[in-house]
Amino acid sequence: MKIFHNKLELIEHLNQLRKLGLSIGFVPTMGALHKGHLSLLKKSSSNNKVSVVSIFINPTQFNSSSDLSTYPNNLKEDCSLLKNISEEILVFAPNSKEIYGNKMYVKSYDFKGLDKFMEGEFRNNHFQGVATVVELLLDIVKPDRAYFGEKDFQQLQIIKSLKTNIKIIGCETQREKSGLALSSRNNKLSLKSKKVASNIFKSLTFLKSNISNYNIKDLTNAVSDNINSFDQMNLEYLIIADEDKLVPTDSINFKKKYRAFISVFVDGIRLIDNIALN
Ligand code: PAF
What we know:
Blueprint: E1 2-4, H1 7-19, E2 24-29, H2 35-47, E3 50-55, H3 65-69, H4 75-85, E4 90-92, H5 96-100, H6 119-122, H7 126-141, E5 145-149, H8 153-161, E6 167-171, H9 191-210, H10 216-228, E7 233-242, E8 258-266, E9 269-276
Parallel strand pairs: 1-4, 2-3, 2-5, 3-4, 5-6
Antiparallel strand pairs: 7-8, 8-9
Helix pairs in contact: 9-10
The structure holds pantoate.
Pantoate binds next to strand 2 and helix 7.
């Protein structure tokens, strides 16, 4: 498997492949790969001749230095997981200088309100950092298609709103048998916390199946109280918003598509999830 640390070498290699008419799929990640990432790569490999995965823990999208310094980082383990999918995958594992040059920076974007609520509200400037690095990575790889998980649905919509010529493809959230959404942060959970955390998806499915029977405010209050009734869980937000503009609502107009978005601290670990409601 080819691993590139240098962007010019990757660009040169991809140029050669492009000259042969090969299509390129791209999966940007921050490493700590799990079956969710691998499913994105499988999709990329089935739609494209060449797949590139980037592994770069982007400092500019973290709000807390302790979150950044404790983010799991193990390139060797990631590469052995990738090898099981295909030896053909190209890995791009740059350092910060390779991506940002000598000085890290964040571009300023107007996401037209897509970043106003949920993650955007609770993680100040997070999406400015995400968009900055995604644009830089897309500019290096110049793929035909790029793949992102729907677990980070707000991130997916924001990336789709960037002006790129690249097809941005959203892929279904992968879950453990218990329903817990796969996430690199799950590595930080004990078995006991994981069991408790499975109530996050249970709450979302309960909400979905009762959405037409109750007033939305009463329903979200009841679900929030249920989450907070577990000693190990602390709800940060539970919001129902339309998929296009990501504006919270208390009433559903069934002509539009809606999702419930949730963020919960489980034994201090912040987990997010969402579910399509209609
Ligand atoms: O979803 C992620 O892992 C990151 O936000 C991304 C898209 C790789 C940008 O750093």
